[in-house]
Specification:
The chain is 26% helix and 37% strand. Helix 1 crosses helix 9 and helix 2 runs parallel beside helix 3. The strands form three sheets. Strands 1, 2, 3, 4, 7, 8, 9, 10 and 11 form a nine-stranded mixed sheet that branches. Strands 12-13-14-15-16-18-19-20 form an eight-stranded antiparallel β-barrel. The protein has a two-stranded antiparallel ribbon with strand order 5-6. It folds into two domains: 296 residues, Aminopeptidase (3-Layer(aba) Sandwich), CATH 3.40.630; 165 residues, Porin, CATH 2.40.160. It has ten helices and 20 strands. By secondary structure, it is α+β, with helices and mostly antiparallel strands.
Length: 487
Amino acid sequence: MKLKQLFLAIFTVGSLLTNAQTSDSAILEKHVTYLASEELEGRGLGTKGKDLATTYIQGQFSEAGLQPFQGDFLQKFCLEVGMIRVNATNVIGIVEGTDATLKNEYVVIGAHYDHLGYTTNKKDEKIFYPGADDNASGVAAIIELAKHFAKAENKPKRSLLFIAFDAEEIGLRGSNHFVKTLDQNMLNNIKAMFSFDMVGMLSANKGLNLKGIATITNGKEIAQKHAGDIKLFKANSDIEERTDTEPFGAIGIPAIHVFTGTKSPYHRPEDKADLLDYQGMAKVVDYMSKVITEIANQSTEIKPVAYLDKLRENEKAVYKRFQAGVVLNIGSGKHLYKDEFFDAKSAFAYSVGLQANYKITRITHLNLEVLYDYNTSESANGTFKRNSLTLPFNVEFGTATNSGRSTRVFVFGGPYYRYNFDGKDGGQSLDFENTFREKEWGYNLGIGADFGNIRFAFTFRKSFDSVLQEGAKIQPFAGYLTLGYRF
């Protein structure tokens, strides 16, 4: 009889666990199906559908038992998109921690809820971008995590901030707004941030990315401890700059991108709710609840890795959009005879000076140099050499710069201006008044890499103009190994 009761008990518990998993999956699917429905019009900025999403998320947070942030679930702000002003809204709720001291520290759990909206075809029919994986999946995940942590038995020692960010798709505007509106004391008390962005395709991608988990000193160990059969990718200390982790990492807060991968047809009309892996999503939510619980409950400090710690300690050390430094170009120059079948032989050339680099976006930088330029070529009279002031201005396109670090590979190109103030052809001084050109324009092309503050590049520089004011067109050309250091 006892054996029969034991089997019955095991069967009952197994059934409850199975039903719980199925229920979680079904609820996640319900969230995504609504958020990715045509009624919500692709959740584009300025659409009624996006406003419906705002209301839905606020309702879910309130129903879960979250408390409003600073007296209101809605953090409203206004954006300028081109010449249009658009209203946007972050939805924020709090689970207060249980420890009298640690509840004043926060872990942010976020996901952006905006998407691309819709376009119209030639028949004036709307084509919706549902954004099921990107990012109704992430929103569904944080709603269910909010419900989990709001229960008395699951509340951690530290407080949790649940944030549905708006305007991510046009440049992380919601998360940037949130960070910029907080006072320094609040920012210092945010100890970690998790961004759930595209978590709906676990099986298709065969694992979960936790990029940035090692920005918490013991984060990787905690993540691996609870992973079970979930394969973890990119469990490193690099902060993803293409999602809402970037504004947090930029000010020294450990920030983790929770992401199953790019197998879904994201940013396309085909990113629909019926394609997602809801069993996998439930697995991710369950796993992340364990990871977040351990991090939010640890009695020791949630300590960032060294490079983020420096940003927290010294506000001036925050990764800057503008950096200045020195640069040295070493190589050779020669003259190209446009109207002849030959070119001159090359001669040693170099330039040295200052550089200024401005980060427009994560992948696009502007770089200006001011150089003393010794440019040369071999000629019939010996070595043709000029002393010049050269100002190259380049646009750089490369891999995204990481918050607090600047390791990147890039290509660049742009114009340069050169003022020639002295020179000789063999032993004869150059006559810039009558014969040789004093001013010239040209272009730069190259490829390079930044490692921290050190730059290596190969630079090619060619003039549009001839060295002569009149007569044969003789164009200066040079190739350099570029070495730079930015302060």
